[in-house]
Amino acid sequence: MTIITPLSRFITKSVLSKEQSEGVGAKIRRSIGRPELRNHDPFLMLDEFDSDATVGFPDHPHRGFETVTYMIEGQVQHEDFAGHKGTIGPGDLQWMTAGRGIVHSEMPVKTESRIHGLQLWINLPKEHKMCEPQYQELRDGQIPRATPYEGVIIKIIAGESHGVKSQVYTRTPTMYLDFKMDKNKTVTQNIPSSFTGFIYMLKGKAYIGDKEFEGEAHHTLTFSEDGAEMVKIQTKDEDAHFVFIAGEPLKEPIVQHGPFVMNTTEEIYETFVDYQHSQNGFERARNWRSSIA
Ligand code: FJE
Ligand code: FE
Question: The whole model's pTM is what?
Answer without folding.
Answer: 0.96
